[in-house]
Specification:
With 81 residues, the protein is mainly alpha-helical. It has helices spanning 8-14, 31-44, 48-62, 69-80.
């Protein structure tokens, strides 16, 4: 019986991603929403990544959350007072 080879792919799969490594997810939009997003993207001369980052920052701010650890501590301390 032949032994399975452990290559770089097997080793990489076990390693945790770097903390600052980007995370990718695939999103799906209905056609009307995509048309509105695409039009706004072209009007503002931004790429989809820039619009997405802005939208998620605004969403986190709306709910009193932040992606920045220092800012999270600051908000937490402010709420405790």
């Amino acid at each position: 019986m032949a032994k399975a080879k452990k290559g770089k792919a097997a080793t990489k799969a076990k390693q945790a991603p770097a903390e600052d490594a980007p995370i990718g997810k695939r999103l799906q939009f209905d056609r009307a929403t995509w048309a509105a997003i695409d039009l706004m993207r072209r009007e503002q001369m931004k790429d989809l990544q820039e619009l997405t980052e802005e939208a998620f920052r605004d969403l986190l701010k709306k709910y009193g959350r932040t992606a920045d650890t220092r800012e999270a501590f600051r908000l937490s301390a402010k709420k405790a007072k």
